Amino acid sequence: MRRLKLILIIALLGQSVFAQTNQDKIKQYRRTNEHEILREFVNLLSIPNVASDHENVRRNAAFIFEMMKRRGLEPRLLEAKTANVPPAVYAEWKTPGATRTIVLYAHYDGQPTDPKQWTGMLPWQPVLRSAALEAGGKLLSLPNISESINPEWRLYARSASDDKAGVMAILTAFTALKAGDIKPTSNIKFFFEGEEEAGSPHLGEIINLNKDLLASDAWIICDGPVHQSGRKQAVFGVRGDTNVDVTVYGAKRPLHSGHYGNWAPNPAAILTRLLASMKDDAGRVTIAGWYDDTQPLGEAEQRAIAEAPQYDAELKTQLGLAGTEGSGKSLLELINLPSLNINGMSSGDVGSLARNVIPTTASAVLDLRLVKGNDYRRQVARLTEHIRRQGFYVIDREPTDEERLKHALIAKVVHRSGGYNAERTPMDLPISLAVSEAVQATSAQPIVRLPTAGGSLPLSIITENLRTVTVTVPIANYDNNQHAENENIRLQNLWDGIETFAALMTMKQ
Amino acid sequence: MRRLKLILIIALLGQSVFAQTNQDKIKQYRRTNEHEILREFVNLLSIPNVASDHENVRRNAAFIFEMMKRRGLEPRLLEAKTANVPPAVYAEWKTPGATRTIVLYAHYDGQPTDPKQWTGMLPWQPVLRSAALEAGGKLLSLPNISESINPEWRLYARSASDDKAGVMAILTAFTALKAGDIKPTSNIKFFFEGEEEAGSPHLGEIINLNKDLLASDAWIICDGPVHQSGRKQAVFGVRGDTNVDVTVYGAKRPLHSGHYGNWAPNPAAILTRLLASMKDDAGRVTIAGWYDDTQPLGEAEQRAIAEAPQYDAELKTQLGLAGTEGSGKSLLELINLPSLNINGMSSGDVGSLARNVIPTTASAVLDLRLVKGNDYRRQVARLTEHIRRQGFYVIDREPTDEERLKHALIAKVVHRSGGYNAERTPMDLPISLAVSEAVQATSAQPIVRLPTAGGSLPLSIITENLRTVTVTVPIANYDNNQHAENENIRLQNLWDGIETFAALMTMKQ
């Protein structure tokens, strides 16, 4: 009798208590299996995963394939027709009766990196630290099954956050749901890409070869960091991205700076003048037309930004910044504008290798972020035209001797392959609301909903090739050193990510 | 009887024919011993000679010490009191009755270099080429004694020109004079320095420890290249030189350029603005006071510049330059002004290692050349003040967290040790005229006499510590890639250098 009453009460309390119970099960599963999850993650992170490293990146795909098989899924490698392209790793979890299909996306490749710049470790030899390196985190050995795991510990490795954490959270959420015998509410498709950090040059090709297989109502993207405050996020857009290499020239051979200095042009000085001409002191891009086709935000989006936590002051303190660009606008406002960033710049040598020479060339790599309305080809054309207006003869290869003698200023401008546009899903679509609710249900604090992330994902490739929308649900800690040396994930963020993705697989119909 | 007549005629024709005969003897000695000279030079060039590489640089001193002993000199190592300083290698060749004493100077250390940048060789594994690399020169093995040596061949190695060629030419000239039984006209002192490329930080110390030993009427410096036309030179001054490292700062950790771009300041962009503020488009330094204390040239000096060959157009073609700095002024005019050169510049990475990050720092190494009247400490102070006027908080160490939060623009400005001032000897002194005549006597073409070289030597250290003057007589080919990768010497320049220094040791009293 008491038992029957209990069942009745539970049935009456309905879905929210049910969801709460599910969440407890997921949490319990994770707690019981933390050591095993960590071990599997360390193994995944031990495989070098730069997309251009064909052999190794494919070992990652094979490893994820095996992870899926062990979980009872029937994985497939989706190959491009083009040679030497990392495959996408794919599997399905069908839900009888489900009227909605969602694709859960993460990428298993990582940014290239200089191993020498990592502190006390190599990028693909993961280490555990008691806290962030910057906070004095000490090296720990991997815990025995008898030792408890502190969720503030950090796991350091290339892609620990970006984006093998996504693969790990999604596949572990699946295992936890299965273990708890919790049914999903949608048909679930898993899709793990292998060359996102190279600009997803073949994602469109793989999608087009598998249009029926990949049909869905939405792609949920697990990538990027949660809000700097630690609050969970749902992000409805991403910035587009493209890269341009610029090289300017001095004499054909390096010259002694004493014998020729003040007479032979110095390419480093030429490059500084060129780059300085592209932005004003406040950081506003001065290239003609740069902001022209930016699509203004809608009302829902503006409200979301206004409601998001104001975290800039705290961030400035953490990063050691006395000032910021953008004339006092907030970070959240500024990422809704197209940007121009110098990723790197080099001429001659600095430090102990520096010599008294006039270098022969000076180079910079520029990163152009796009927002809704911009087209990456158009922005590159504006940049190129700006360089021309500064008096440069613009080419996309090394100059010939004849060209050198004809043009005092020569710029080699190479638009790297793999650019793509921004993408933004309206925040008031039913699927947008369902995702927001599911993520909110796993968090005691109000989640942050953003019209766009600052970062870029090739989501326009998805929506241009498939009739679907995308929503990004990031899980990494914001201070994960993504794209840089000493990348890491805070373990609690991985644990939270598992719960988030379990909630998304079981979100309201 | 015929024989007596011949002797009489020779005696009557006097010194010029005598000099001619001496010169023939020197030439003949060199021709007979080319293979041996080359072999000894290759052995000298095989010893790594960066001044900071204590162990190896000392092996060079020991090698030269042995070279001198083999020649019958009594060499000494002149040591600094400071630890780990490369010694100067010293010897004397006394001339009974001579009223003049000259010091012949060269340096045996070389510029640091990145071995990876050398073409088909390592910097301390000399190779012979049939011509300059840029002219398609092919690798040759060292010639057997039976094979003849083409004087257009080039020997490639670090310091092949700068400045072991000086050591080699001076010591071979000595051997040739001894072999020909030709007496010098001055007391000769040999002085080979071991840390010139590091800015001669202990030359003053070594000189002051040996003031009596080094007393002389003039130092003749064998360093640098001959004129671009191939004509021999006598140079009566050198520019002063000093280096400054500048680093500017962004956030304390590298940031994802998407998540933070357009908000977090980019140090590369900050550095480009700072460096661009230092020079105008014509290459004129815009730092306040930069040209203020430049001492104008005298009449003899202005005439020498006017008489020097006009070689700029030819040089521009060779170097692939459509334009030059300095609003159309000639190279020879411009080296009589203080300069500011960017030796190297770096922030983040370029090429395949580039990532979409905002770097944490951006650095440049600046090279400041000084002319007569300038003081290197004053020029650095002007540079520093300029940086301050651009709004930077200037320090000489890493900023503290507190400073980062207080100052939006921070520049670490480090004045490297080893700077020194320019030096210029009046061109109408008797010793100046004697040197000019001696060098002219070895050349069919009119020699080039310059008030100053573009390059720098620590000659002010010599004249500030000893009552003497300096004249520089360079021997290297101008396209020797001095201070850069693929440094080389054209063999004919070494052969000519031997004759030049034999003539200087026997110049008119």
What is the strand and helix layout of this fold?
The structure is a homodimer of 509-residue chains.
Chain A: H1 2-13, H2 15-45, H3 54-70, E1 76-78, E2 88-93, E3 101-107, E4 127-129, E5 139-140, E6 154-156, H4 164-179, E7 187-193, H5 203-209, E8 218-221, E9 233-235, E10 237-238, E11 240-249, E12 255-256, H6 257-260, H7 267-276, H8 299-307, H9 312-319, H10 331-334, E13 339-348, E14 357-358, E15 361-370, H11 376-389, E16 393-395, H12 401-406, E17 410-415, E18 423-424, H13 430-441, E19 448-450, H14 459-465, E20 469-472, E21 488-490, H15 491-505
Helix pairs in contact in A: 2-4, 2-15, 4-15, 13-15
Characterise this structure.
2 copies of one chain form a homodimer. Chain A folds into 2 domains: 2-239 and 423-505, 3-Layer(aba) Sandwich (Aminopeptidase); 240-294 and 337-415, Alpha-Beta Plaits, CATH 3.30.70. In chain A, helix 2 (15-45) crosses helix 15, helix 4 packs across helix 15 (491-505) and helix 13 crosses helix 15. In chain A, strand 16 (393-395), helix 12 (401-406) and strand 17 form a beta-alpha-beta unit. Chain A has helices spanning 2-13, 15-45, 54-70, 164-179, 203-209, 257-260, 267-276, 299-307, 312-319, 331-334, 376-389, 401-406, 430-441, 459-465, 491-505, and strands spanning 76-78, 88-93, 101-107, 127-129, 139-140, 154-156, 187-193, 218-221, 233-235, 237-238, 240-249, 255-256, 339-348, 357-358, 361-370, 393-395, 410-415, 423-424, 448-450, 469-472, 488-490. The longest helix of chain A is centred in the N-terminal third of the chain and has 31 residues, at 15-45. The first copy, chain A, is an alpha/beta fold and 509 residues long. Strand 13 of chain A pairs antiparallel with strand 13 (339-348) of chain B.
